[in-house]
């Protein structure tokens, strides 16, 4: 496995990525090499490496592709342990926060938030079949439904989906309780949209997420997203020694750990460009950025 110094084009699918494998056809991305399930462990974290090794079982000689896949498969099984359970905490946080989400996310004037959301969605023009990831309480869903032929809205928190179902009863919208990383669909969507979700994707899962989007997107389709600018980072309480884990407290005093990787527009554009995406990002308020990405290969 090689980390290329510059972009490359997969000999099979034409895609790209942060790693490549050399094979008979040429350079392959991890998906085409059937290695996209691997978990990358950064050098220098001895405790993390020991835990992964403890839960691995080599099949074949060490260093062979089968041995590497076995090691990472077993590390993937214990991924929740390796990340300290933060992803489970993150879902629990949004389940518990559902009833107070709109006020805590948008302030006392939810009507004003709805008007802003409607304006932003009108600028996006999300026509055709739309998939909304992490739909939350449905404020964005109802705006998407005005433009789209169909909206499929998913969220891992059933309490969020329940609120969204009550709010949005348009005939062209369907809801599903699902974790996008384990969700499968035969449909290919003309638009994939998510708001305040990308910043909750673990850094080590970033490439995996965008590879997943490739499989969900129809030819010529677009990925549209809204998220928080890196300038907002100072408002979060980061866990000591953790660059992407924050601690949040709800109104009832309960605390949860959540992944939070704020968007740095130029950095994100460059990273997606190396993966075969053409992305434009602009700031739409002091807090929010809007991004639109299309596959270039």
Structural account:
The structure is a single chain. Helices cover 33% and strands 22% of the residues. By secondary structure, the chain is α/β, with parallel strands linked by helices. The strands form 3 sheets. Strands 5-4-3-6-7-11-10 form a 7-stranded mixed beta sheet, sandwiched between helices. A two-stranded antiparallel ribbon has the order 1-2. Helix 6 runs parallel beside helix 7 (139-147).
Layout of SSEs?
Blueprint: E1 21-23, E2 26-28, H1 46-54, H2 65-77, H3 79-82, H4 86-97, H5 101-106, H6 110-124, E3 129-133, H7 139-147, E4 150-155, H8 158-167, E5 173-177, E6 189-195, H9 206-216, E7 217-228, E8 245-249, E9 255-259, H10 265-274, E10 277-283, E11 288-295
Parallel strand pairs: 3-4, 3-6, 4-5, 6-7
Antiparallel strand pairs: 1-2, 7-11, 8-9, 10-11
Helix pairs in contact: 6-7
